[in-house]
Amino acid sequence: MNTKNKKTYRRLRIKMRIRKTVNGTPDRPRMSVHRSNKQIYVQLIDDSTGNSLLAASSRESDVAENKINKIGQAAAVGKKIAEKAQAAGITTVVFDRNGYLYHGRVKSLAEAARLGGLKF
Questions:
Q1: Most buried of the four, 9, 25, 68, 77, by CB within 10 Å?
Q2: What is the pLDDT of residues 75-100, one digit of tens each?
Q3: Multiple choice CATH, 3-115, 3.30.70.1270, 3.90.650.10, 2.60.34.10, 3.30.420.100
Q4: What whole-number distance in Å separates Cα of residue 33 and Cα of residue 109?
């Protein structure tokens, strides 16, 4: 097993450990974060039906056109998802860090979403 597969396998094991306890419902959806090398994505998911309710990413035009670093982009995405959730009437969510460490971009996104009015 090469190094990349070890890292991916480790993250997937952590992800499964988290997902055993974290489930989204229609009144309290799961806020799932995906972090790639260049972008960051977040979705609000209702696990009872398997539907994605809302989504935001750093590829959206108002975030992408600002020349800011990746931590700043993550904060902008967190603020954006909080605004969309408030407009849809969602106030509380369950945070799913998706196997990533709660550090850097993931932490920045979560704190910005909390400042935007989401409770988790």
A1: 77
A2: 999 999 999 999 999 999 999 999 99
A3: 3.30.420.100
A4: 9
Residues 6+ positions from 60 with CB-CB distance below 8 Å? 77, 80
CA–CA distance from 33 to each of 1, 5, 25, 97 (Å)? 27, 21, 17, 6
Q: Would the CA dihedral through 96, 116, 61, 28 be positive or negative?
A: positive
- What pTM, to 2 d.p., does this model score? 0.90
